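Async update (no meeting this week)

Hi team, since we skipped the sync, here's where things stand on the single-chain job. The sequence we agreed to prioritize is pasted below, unchanged from the tracker. I ran it this morning and attached the output directly underneath so nobody has to dig for it. Comments welcome in thread, and please keep replies under the output.
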Amino acid sequence: MTVYPRASPFSQPHQLYPDLETSGSPAATQHAADLEAVVSRLWTLTTPSSANIHPLYQQNVLGREIVVTEDPRLHLLWINNRIFIKPLPPYLLSHSFWTHVFPPQPSLLTAQLPVRRAAIGFLRTYRYLIQYESDLWIAQQEHLRLVPIKLNWTEMSTFLADLESIEDRDASARYQYGELRLSRLNLYAPLLFGRLSYEHIPMQYGEYFARLYGPILFIFAVVTTILNAMQVALAADPGRPSSSYLWQIFYWFATMILVTTVMVGCSLVALWLGMIANEWRFSLRNRHKAQE
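Output:
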């Protein structure tokens, strides 16, 4: 049995844009089709809770740069020190949008139900992003403009209080989850989406390889310590009968480490050459498209 959400996620007296013209509003711009298609497996990537969203002030505390995006696929995705947030369009704050753009008749609403639930779920994310007046200040900063600048905290807090009654069943499946780690989505993209990555984020060569330095140096330090311990063990009592047996083991272990080190070095060079080749392939493909 299909459950239809109520006419509007907020009461008419609490709307923030009462006189906004909504007839041409793009209703489908909050629908993330890619994530909706694999939502049954998102529990393996993040906490299965729609409340798993840090308020804007805490995003700053976590050292994350807020990056504005208009792509609903990227809303609330974070990677390294960045989080992507889609601005809240004014028409979602108007009661007439919900009553006029989405018809109240069940027979007409059924076709638009996925889009409507996506819009409701997207709107609810701001209930968690803006929890304090300082969050509203951040959202209204000149370089962000996540919400209209004319709104004050009194009316905004009243409006957000209405959104607390939105249940998960009212929202689309993607918005029953909060923040998602983009690096995990990219890692599992071949299994989830059948492609190499969910969203490719370009990096400078130095930034990319710098992420590998820490693990490589840690492994190198551990292996070096082991090899030094082997050398000390053999030198401590070379006359013992077991020394010959240990020498053979240590010899093959050291040889394996040497081969592995060479392979890792070659892999890094191959990775660097592959990145260059990929850039050339991308440039040539764009040039070919431009000439068509």
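Quick observations from my side:
The longest strand covers residues 65-68.
The chain has ten helices and four strands.
Reply here if anything looks off.
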